[in-house]
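#help-structures
NK: newbie question, is this the right format to request a structure? protein is C4-type zinc ribbon domain-containing protein
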Amino acid sequence: MAKKTDVTVEEKLRALYDLQLIDSRIDEIRNVRGELPLEVEDLEDEVAGLNTRIQKLNADLEVYDNDIKSKKNLIEDAKTAIKKYSEQQKNVRNNREFNALSKEVEFQELEIELAEKHIKEYKAQIEQKKEVIVQTQERLEDREKHLAHKKGELDAILSETQKEEEALAKKSDEYENQIEQRLISAYKRIRNNVKNGLAVVPIERGASGGSYFTIPPQVIVEIASRRKIITDEHSGRILVDEDLAKEEQEKMQKFFSKI
């Protein structure tokens, strides 16, 4: 192929319009997917978050179980101590020793009472956590089903369109490399500034494609001469004549049908 600097204006216009047709086809494919990829990503994040929450709740249950075991051991130790002090009271020599042992017994009884109170609180926390786990598990199962459904939809669309999109993206890159950087930059800027991504449009019924603003006849003649690149003064889009557009549409349609 000739160097970019040797390419005629008509060749540039054809290449730009072909690039537009390819990119528009890629846009169509991506529009079919719509918000599905984002929905799947959001659902995956939610499922991961719910799994993490369940893991944390189960870890909390384990901590409470260990705390209950610890308090039960403390109660057993306190009961053993009470029995020991009670036996010692039978052999005391004076009231002072008896009262000292009585205080030890009283302290151990308070320890038992406090430990039993804590055990009761831990058990209440366990029941509460278990209810939250059940609710979270139900939510997780619902989200996993929804995720599987959305993934199925996305996978079906991807299996139908991925090969075509990859081929189109490769062709788009090829066309970009054939066009001078100045025009590519302008083309991309226009695409980013319009809702439908149309940066190169044909003349249709005396107006630029997709626009209600008519173009003066002398400008239409100038566009048809293909001697310079002309843009629509209202939208900034690059304009091509109807005949050139039809020829390139037919050419690119043959390419699309082979993918």
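mod (FA): yep, format's fine, and the tokens are attached above. The longest helix spans residues 95-178.
NK: thank you!
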